[in-house]
Amino acid sequence: MNSTLTITRREFRSNFDSPIAYVVIALSLLFVGWLFFSQFWTVNRATVAPLFYYLPWAFVFPIIPAITMRLFAEEKRTGTIELLITMPVRDRDIVLGKFFATLGLIAVLLVLTLTYPYTISRIGNLDLGPVWVGYVGLLLEAAAGIAIGLFFSSLTENQIVAFFLTLCSLFGLWAVGFLSSDTNGPLGNIISFVSFERRLSPFSRGLFDVRNAIYFLSVTAFFLLATMRSLESRKWK
Amino acid sequence: MATDVMIHTKDLTKRYENFVAVDRISFDVHRGEVVGFLGPNGAGKSTTMRILTCFISATDGVAKVHGFDCFDEPLEVRRVIGYLPQRAPLYPEMTVHEYLDFCADLRQLPVGESRKKSVRRVVEVCGLNSFYQKEIRSLSHGQRQRVGLGQALLHDPPVMILDEPTADLDPNEKREFLTYLRDIGSNRTVILSTHNISEVEYACSRTLIIANRDGKGGRIVADGPVEAIRAQGGTVRYQIAVGAGDSGKLPSGRELRTTLGEIRGADRVTELAAPDAKSVKVEVVGAKDADIRGELRRAVADKSWELLELGRELPSLEDVFRELTLAEDRRDRLPAAAAAE
Predict the structure, then answer these.
(1) A10 part of contact set with chain B, CB < 8 Å
(2) Residues of A in contact with B81 (CB under 8 A)
(3) Among candidates B74, B54, B73, B70, which has minimal Cα distance to B62?
(4) Could you tell me if B300 lies within 8 Å of chain A, comparing CB atoms?
(5) Which of B18, B57, B105, B159 to substitute to test the interface with A, most A CBs within 10 Å?
(6) Among the four residues B18, B45, B128, B303, which has the most C-beta atoms within 10 Å?
(7) Which residues make beta-bridge pairs with A180?
(8) What is the tally of structural domains in chain B?
(9) pLDDT at residue A72, rounded to an integer
(10) Given CB atoms, is B75 within the 8 Å cutoff of chain A?
(11) What is the predicted pLDDT for the residue at B339?
């Protein structure tokens, strides 16, 4: 079996061997569901827009930092990384295996949230096109966030440090978007360019813009490569 | 006769920012050799093993395993080695069965009867049967160590690199494992680091001693079969048992020590536990190039004691190890000001 797939399988299963995945998913579903439906009855319109507003926030805090913090930090702390790396696998297999396993966990979470649009489609007339595009956007944003979390986890043995570094980075990349409306000139352009919020909002309105997809994929690729370099750096330290 | 070089290092050096961990070490290990890698803590044993397993890279020098370069061909090297790092780090949430299956997948052992056979062999050799379906988190240290050994043996590798493999095993498990190593060592290469010298004497056909020198990184200070290394020591030991004899009075340990200590060439005299109440036993340490058995015999006769036993033997491996590595250890224990002088 392909080494990346072997590692993906093990990592995906190990998510469910610790309570973190269950707690984070359950709390996020409850919290986002509560916010979503409380707005839904107020607006009184068949829309899932609140879902695409609150779920990215839940990704920033706590979902992605919580599920990525242990990926390398825990292996470094316990020493299992040494046994894994000295197997006949490439560093890239290890990084991609962990990445896809975590993306799989997010996919499980997103599938569970499908109950919200499903419920609304039963009681109202919901346009499903924007819903699917919104989910694609969420998955792309999650992929970028996971790659960032994976990178910070590879820098330290301390899960808490990895958690906060990821949280601060994601929060910065998300919240910086709120400054863009008040900032003009080149700085405003830069903020709009890097902001996760600005990049994601077209998806949540049902607009699939290839440039935004490429942006998220580029961030993902950049941080996956950075993680591979970080893992490789053990050789030279 | 072993001829194939399975592990080759030449001027292997690992420098960190502030210190040199391994300093230009060179050695070859051949097929069919079980090599004990001895050295005090911090001498560079684990660093050397980590370079050989491609976990870290050397700063300088050459390291090859089975002809593959550890720097340029890490995947090929990892395919031919079975490695057990210190403390056998394993995934606690997996069962032993799942873990071995995971390792077999990573090692790309084909699924089917041959894989089952490999797993069965490992389960039998490492004694994993009684906890095969248990989660690793519930196992004792010794059981985890055995699982770690299991994964290192799973693909029947021609080269095994084991970092303190018996650290958490009980005496029976240790002996069983060492016997197994000795058996499999006839047609493959094993290099194991340990602090336990008796294990090296029991299982290893050859010993490498690595020690820090002059405050620098680890260097090879002895290399060869156990007997040859023992012969490298600068001392020999005489064991003497004495009875009352014509004097009619058994000497005290102190009396015997004083008498023998006056002989020229007897550098150190230590009392040993006597086998019975009718004798006193001491050990005399002297220079290797002198034989003072005649003087010892005469000194005993002069006191009219009876000489029950007199033997001359090379120092133990432990003595040589201490002799070769203690100087640096003492240096480490000096107060900072004295060390800086």
Answers:
(1) yes
(2) 86
(3) B70
(4) no
(5) B105
(6) B45
(7) none
(8) 2
(9) 97
(10) yes
(11) 45
> Taking the CB of residue A74, how many other CB atoms lie within 10 A of it?
19
| CA-CA-CA-CA dihedral for B183, B184, B185, B187, to nearest 10 | 120
Give the gap in angstroms from C-alpha B47 to the nearest C-alpha of chain A: 11
Domain that holds residue B196: 5-231
Stretches in chain A below the pLDDT threshold 50: none
Are A10 and B57 an interchain contact pair (Cβ–Cβ within 8 Å)? no
Domain final residue pick, B213, B231, B249: B231
For residue B106, CA distances in Å to A14, A122, B66, B146, B225 come to 17, 47, 20, 19, 36
CATH of the domain at B51: 3.40.50.300
Of B78, B79, B106, the CB nearest to A6: B106
- Does one domain contain both B150 and B195? yes
Instruction: State which residue of chain B sits closest to A94, comparing Cα positions.
Output: B106
A93: closest chain B residue by CA: B106
Residue labelled with tokens 């839904």: A40
Which residues in chain B are contacts of A234 at CB distance < 8 A?
A: 55-56
Count of residues making up chain B: 341
Beta bridge partners of B283: B239, B270
